[in-house]
Amino acid sequence: MTQATKNKLINALDRLLEGKPENRELKKKAREGKLKVNNSTVEKEAGLSVGALRRHEDIQVMVKNKSLEARAAQDDLSHSPVDILQAEVKQLKHDKTQANKKKRSTLTSLEAMNKH
To answer: Which of 1, 94, 55, 23 lies closest to 37, judged by CA?
Structure first.
């Protein structure tokens, strides 16, 4: 990939972090407060195809880090990106526990139905 593509991606990331995208769809999301900064939105803002970031691992890391830093800055309760990640891990563990309970319940019901 060319340096021009890399520059487009970096500039797009900067615009998204500032909350000032040029892409019409992303502008609308920014106004609604629903704008997320991730690989997909950076590619869209840069006017590149899906997967354009695939060959730019350095930019992918930059997107991930900057996005996490921005989320930490917006979150009143969190003091660092680590706090946000810990909260996400906690939520994922809770979701997994709930899914496993539902799975056990369903399996128990199926076994009871098969016995009759």
So the answer is: 23
pTM: 0.67
Segments of the chain with pLDDT less than 70? 1, 75-79
Q: Rounded CA gap, 105 and 116, in Å? A: 17
pLDDT at residue 90 in the model: 92
The CA-atom distances, in angstroms, between 36 and each of 7, 27, 98, 104 are: 20, 11, 27, 35
The mean pLDDT of the chain is: 88
Among 52, 56, 30, CA closest to 43:
52
Cα angle 36, 40, 42; round to 5 = 75
